[in-house]
């Protein structure tokens, strides 16, 4: 062999596709049947198809509103519906799922009896941040995977109402300047960037660890006057001062697309807050479709997620569209935000009483 050939083989990293990575991870789990790997691969395919539609949305006049509102009473764009329909179709036919819940559908979706059912339950926000589509900002798909507690043929809505502590895998696909698939199945958080020329997600960020201390805070500060807890307002004032733990003001960054705000903070260090407010005393973001899956990813990366009072993973959903206040990101910052929120009452009542009433 010539020396030229040898030097071509030296250096560089192994190119790892999402598929390779899922299969390699499966080998590390004794007795794994491959069902979970097949499910993740199916979500990867759905992510590629949604990415394609998002990329050409302007070209095929798919942009704009359907004129409908979803179960939450919010405006629904055509791509929300497209992504919802595609995910439900792909999940129902992958053979690994028995039930689903989607932000775009009011009730539990059982896989029809004429299709093969598996033991997994998938909850998803088909398109998060969709109000940003018209202005070409980053949006995404968020998913969480749980296991049914019953036989797949007997899976009901109750099986979906499980806390984040029971998640077996979660992730998101962000449609930004690149399309990136981020997932964890309990063995770290890994990100794969789509190479559109070959149609493959390639490993780009291995074992992501989020910084313990943030540089950035992300919240809709325009809502601050109506946040329910004075402590949340005091916390933001503190972050903007030089007397905070970082010794200098934090930078504010808010896209208004949770998946995009979360992704930036995950990589660079940051805290995202959507506190309870007077319009939405229960919080805005949805536990099963947004908060619990992202909390799982964040904790896997060394971060934390809280309602301000309770770890997100411990909140037991009371209904499919259960909402929660969400504080998520760098661990030390989330703990500090909790102390602010718990230490100050909005109403003058002791914090413990306020908590009992919320
Ligand atoms: P969705 O597009 O799935 O309805 O989610 C919208 C969410 C989330 O992405 C974002 O963090 C938040 O709404 C923004 O809310 P505000 O416009 O009230 O700040
Ligand atoms: Mn959303
Ligand atoms: Mn959505």
Q: What does this entry look like structurally?
A:
With 358 residues, this protein is α+β, with helices and mostly antiparallel strands. The protein has 2 domains: 3-205, Fructose-1,6-Bisphosphatase, Chain A, domain 1 (2-Layer Sandwich); 216-357, D-Maltodextrin-Binding Protein, domain 2. Helix content is 32%, strand content 22%. It contains 10 helices and 17 strands. The protein has helices at 3-9, 18-27, 35-55, 78-93, 157-160, 230-239, 258-268, 287-300, 331-343, 351-357, and strands spanning 65-69, 75-77, 97-102, 109-110, 120-128, 139-147, 169-175, 179-184, 190-195, 200-205, 216-218, 251-252, 270-274, 285-286, 304-306, 323-324, 326-329. α2 packs antiparallel against α3, α3 (35-55) packs antiparallel against α4 (78-93) and α6 packs across α9 (331-343). The longest helix is centred in the N-terminal third of the chain and has 21 residues, at 35-55. 2,5-anhydro-1,6-di-O-phosphono-D-glucitol (AHG) binds next to β5. Residues 74, 103, 125, 128-131, 220, 256-258, 284 line the site of 2,5-anhydro-1,6-di-O-phosphono-D-glucitol.
């Amino acid at each position: 062999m010539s020396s030229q050939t040898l030097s071509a083989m030296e250096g560089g990293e192994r190119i790892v596709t999402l598929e390779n990575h899922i299969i390699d991870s499966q080998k590390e789990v004794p007795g794994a049947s491959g069902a979970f790997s097949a499910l993740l691969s199916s979500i990867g395919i759905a992510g590629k198809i949604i990415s394609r539609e998002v990329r050409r949305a302007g070209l095929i006049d798919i942009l704009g509103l359907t004129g409908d509102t979803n179960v939450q009473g919010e405006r629904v764009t055509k791509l929300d519906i497209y992504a919802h329909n595609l995910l439900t179709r792909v999940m129902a036919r992958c053979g690994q799922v028995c039930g689903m819940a989607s932000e775009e559908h009011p009730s539990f979706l059982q896989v029809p009896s004429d299709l093969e059912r598996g033991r997994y339950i998938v909850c998803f926000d088909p398109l998060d941040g969709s109000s940003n589509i018209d202005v070409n900002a980053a949006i995404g798909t968020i998913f969480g995977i749980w296991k049914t507690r019953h036989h797949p043929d007997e899976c009901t809505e109750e099986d979906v109402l499980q806390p984040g502590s029971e998640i077996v895998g979660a992730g998101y696909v962000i449609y930004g300047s690149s399309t990136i698939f981020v997932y964890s199945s309990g063995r770290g958080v890994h990100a794969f960037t789509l190479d559109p020329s070959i149609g493959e997600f390639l490993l780009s960020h291995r074992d992501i660890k989020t910084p313990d201390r943030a540089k950035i805070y992300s919240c809709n500060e325009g809502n601050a006057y109506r946040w329910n807890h004075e402590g949340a307002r005091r916390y933001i004032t503190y972050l903007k001062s030089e007397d905070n733990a970082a010794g200098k003001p934090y930078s504010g960054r808010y896209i208004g697309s949770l998946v995009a705000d979360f992704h930036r903070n995950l990589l660079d260090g940051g805290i995202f807050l959507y506190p309870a407010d007077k319009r939405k005393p229960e919080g805005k973001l949805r536990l099963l479709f947004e908060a619990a899956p992202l909390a799982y990813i964040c904790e896997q990366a060394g971060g934390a997620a809280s309602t301000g009072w309770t770890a997100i993973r411990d909140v037991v959903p009371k209904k499919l569209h259960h909402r929660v206040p969400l504080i998520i990101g760098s661990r030390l910052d989330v703990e500090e935000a909790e102390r602010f929120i718990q230490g100050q009452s909005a109403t003058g009542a002791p914090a413990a009483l306020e908590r009992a009433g919320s």
